[in-house]
Design goal:
Length: 510
């Protein structure tokens, strides 16, 4: 018996020793990968011969106070890490638990909540939204869940005011989630602390104290994609009416908690999370007044979260898509959510990107003082989340490129090599491109020259270097933008064409 006990003891020691060694090796591998990610940043374009950039250098260059990153590999969160300051004045660092405003990424989680109602057969995606919206003057009580129509003192009686622009076609919830409702109001500016905060009906009607325009028809629904945060705000009202409870409570109980996103909330005054809330900063590094804005348009812009929690959502989406999990949505509903509705990219609350044959679902976010982006692959269980507390989000694609390069994520590395050594543009030609180009009445692109280098500077933005691809076409490092200079009939430069999500002409005015 004694020898058998000793044998078991040594076996236990050996087994645990192997586990410790395996864990140490895993930690060493992860640490090495993190170090590589921190040292391999590249922009939308990179110049032949240039070394990759350091995360710390790029944060300083862009005046970004804080960054938070999470990497998903093989259906697991590989690591999450924070950098810099959540609040510089208070010397509060960013950690993996620091929460940021997710901005429009809120729309992705909102779509999960809406489709949960579809799954529970409480909502039809393809019927007129006015079938779910309410009108009337009946007395309402927040305590009466049988007729819940009052949230924070704001009455929720509202129906969409169809007019001739909708061509007598009805808007559906599927239209709202896919931005195909033909609706106005692209996004929201939020409200400084201390300002009057509008109710959701005031927002939809564009009535004071709302600072946005009314949500109305631009053209008939189902015709084409037209991004509308206003349309998403209508889904918030519909969820509130059907669920008969505050939107943030419904989302917490039916989406965030089941996904394990316990550090996230749609509530706009989350006192429990206050010590973890990042402060927003403008592009020049100054603090947003009141530290952040308030967004009553919760479904469109109101989620507070971090990359760790968003990774849980991404992984569950990937597993549900393959029929391996259903914490909130079934495989059938998940596939519906990830299927483009009108075009090849716009699904229900997410965008589908086909990068060289590898498909990713994702969404970006842009609130006052905050920028964010996530990607999750539809196969193989890979992904990345980046959140910053800055109005300048140019560092985000650089970080995504670094993660994709280090981990070999197919298609996600999106940096174009510019071989400037192979192309020299004559000095006289470069000089002919200098001047001012009008993109809009109050938005001017100024082109200058220093030595043999061209620079561009839009109104209110930082100056950036231009690198020649051809004699008259140039690209920049920071973003996926090309600028082409075009001659007129007299042989002089008369306009520039900017290529970013399509061509944009800018007339030369000086």
């Amino acid at each position: 018996m004694r020898s058998f006990a000793l044998l078991l003891f040594f076996a236990f020691v050996l087994l645990n020793g192997q586990r410790v060694c395996a864990q140490a090796a895993e930690n060493a591998d992860t640490s090495a990968a993190i170090s590589q990610v921190e040292r391999n940043l590249v922009g939308a374009t990179h110049v032949e011969g240039d070394d990759p950039m350091l995360l710390s250098e790029r944060m300083a260059y862009y005046h970004v106070k804080g960054v938070s990153i999470a990497v998903i590999h093989n259906y697991k969160m590989e690591w999450a890490k924070g950098y810099g300051w959540a609040d510089e004045d208070l010397k509060r660092p960013v950690t993996a638990q620091t929460v940021f405003q997710a901005a429009s990424i809120s729309k992705s989680l909102n779509s999960v909540g809406v489709l949960k109602l579809v799954q529970d057969k409480k909502l039809d995606l393809y019927t007129d939204i006015n079938n779910y919206l309410r009108s009337g003057k009946e007395p309402i009580s927040t305590q009466n869940t049988d007729s819940y129509m009052l949230i924070n003192g704001a009455q929720l009686n509202w129906k969409f005011p169809y007019d001739s622009l909708s061509k007598n076609k009805k808007i559906t919830v599927a239209n709202l989630l896919s931005h195909t409702g033909g609706l106005t109001v692209h996004g929201f500016a939020g409200y400084e602390k201390g300002m009057d905060i509008p109710g959701i009906v005031q927002v939809l009607n564009g009535k004071p104290p709302a600072n946005s325009k009314p949500v109305r028809s631009m053209y008939e629904p189902g015709l084409k994609f037209e991004y509308s945060g206003g349309g998403i705000t209508i889904t918030q009202l519909i969820v509130t009416i059907i669920a008969r409870e505050p939107y943030e409570k419904y989302m917490e109980e039916n989406v965030l908690k089941p996904l394990g996103m316990l550090g996230s909330t749609y509530f706009q005054f989350p006192s429990a999370l206050k010590p973890l809330m990042a402060t927003g900063y403008y592009a020049n590094g100054t603090e947003v007044p009141g530290k952040h804005h308030i967004y009553p348009e919760q479904a469109a812009a109101g989620l507070w979260t971090n990359p760790t929690d968003l990774s849980k959502y991404i992984i569950e989406t990937q597993l549900a898509y393959e029929g391996r999990s259903h914490k909130v949505l079934t495989q059938q509903i998940t596939k519906l959510r990830l299927t483009p509705y009108v075009d090849k990219q716009t699904a229900l609350g997410v965008f589908i990107e086909d990068f060289d044959g590898t498909k990713y679902f994702g969404h970006g976010g842009s609130n006052e003082g905050f920028r964010s982006q996530y990607y999750g692959s539809l196969q193989d269980g890979n992904g990345v989340v980046v959140m910053v507390n800055s109005d300048n989000g140019n560092i985000i694609p650089e970080i995504v490129n670094s993660v994709a390069k280090v981990y070999g994520f197919k298609g996600l590395y999106r940096s174009k090599l510019v071989k400037t050594s192979m192309l020299k543009v004559a000095d006289s030609i470069l000089q002919s491109y200098t001047g001012k180009y009008e993109l809009a009445p109050d938005f001017i692109l100024t082109i200058t020259k220093n030595g043999t280098q061209l620079f561009g500077q839009p109104t209110g933005k930082s100056k950036f270097a231009l690198f020649p691809e051809t004699e008259n076409k140039f690209s920049i490092k920071e973003e996926d933008i090309e600028i082409e200079f075009v001659k007129g009939d007299k042989g002089t430069i008369e306009k520039a064409v900017l290529y970013q999500n399509g061509p944009h002409e800018a007339r030369k005015i000086k």
